[in-house]
Amino acid sequence: MTALAVLVLVALACLAGPGLTGTEPDRFYPDLRLLPAGLGAQPDEAHLGLALERIAFRIRARVAEATRDGETLRLVLAADAPIDRRGLVYLPRSDLFGPARVVGEEEGGRRLILAVPVRALHFPLGTDIHGRDLLARSLVAGRVSLAVGLTATLVALLIGIAYGATAGLVGGAVDAVMMRIVDALYALPFIFFVILLLVFFRASLGLMLVAIAAVEWLDMARIVRAQTLSLRERDFVRAARALGSSTPRLLARHIVPNALGPIAVAATLLVPQVILLESFLSFLGLGVQEPQTSWGVLIAEGARSIETAPHMLAAPAAFLIATLVSLTVFGDGLADALDPRGRET
């Protein structure tokens, strides 16, 4: 139940969290790049000066004085020629400051005294190399990763359970032919299959789902077939067959319900496997493409910057590890709860 609670919290955070962070996941803050994780408000004194210098350069002026008093900044801009006030729009465009108010003018407009509101931004997990909020990006990435994992797993379950249960219950030559088809698909290199798809179709999230689902059902089919082979000789299956139950009824009423324990464990392990596979494809440039992102993409970006910004790897990795561990623990508990022998005792 603890693992289920963690999964629910992660899912809710990914769904509703980005709107509560106060920043846009794709918003660039050039003056706040590679900020470490922390709870302090930004921009702090160190980054405030850099941001003002950059904005003043665009206004064609220089910072003569900057005094901060809480959330208000007294800014004095100076230039060799009268300052064009239209350039003050660069302050609110940076998303670090609010609209500036001119409180004084000196030297014929070559010196402006401004009152500038300073916005308080918070980056609990820091920012990346482009100055984007890692918390907001990790939550948005979780939507894609969880959607890929759940969708591909659902497709693999539907195909694998139907295929494996049918092969195991029918048996004989039908079982042999069906499993040889599975063996032939196993022999096809996955990366070659993905590249082959990319030759005919454009790389996209949908194409990646098709590629993953097309191969991940093979393991599920073998697991279900093995469970079916052990169940079809049980007395309750023989009794149902003797009473005239058809093959679809046997599968739906007796085989699949009694195999739910192993299937649940395999499914919970398949979700993180799919997420990791999506990460691998995205790292190769065959999966999630910009402007979309996923935990795998963020981890790949963090791995490239691990020496200078280890928090870029730690943030998405923490979400991924929490999800994978919770899925594994939840699968074990679900297998015990669905085990018919456990219910009998």
Automatic annotation (TrEMBL):
Say yes or no: keyword Signal present.
Answer: yes
> Which coarse location class applies to the principal site listed for this UniProt protein?
membrane
Transmembrane regions = 144-169, 181-201, 255-276, 313-335
**Where in the cell does this protein reside?**
Cell inner membrane; Cell membrane
List each copy of the ABC transmembrane type-1 domain by range.
142-331
Report the Gene3D superfamilies cross-referenced here.
MetI-like
Q: Name one Pfam family in it.
A: BPD_transp_1
Q: Could you tell me the keywords of this UniProt record?
A: Cell inner membrane, Cell membrane, Membrane, Signal, Transmembrane, Transmembrane helix, Transport
Please name the SUPFAM superfamilies in this protein's record: MetI-like
> Which stretch is the leader sequence?
1-16
Instruction: Tell me what topology the record assigns in the membrane.
Output: Multi-pass membrane protein
Question: Which family does the similarity line name?
Answer: Belongs to the binding-protein-dependent transport system permease family.
The protein's name is: Oligopeptide transport system permease protein
Instruction: Tell me the organism.
Output: Methylobacterium aerolatum
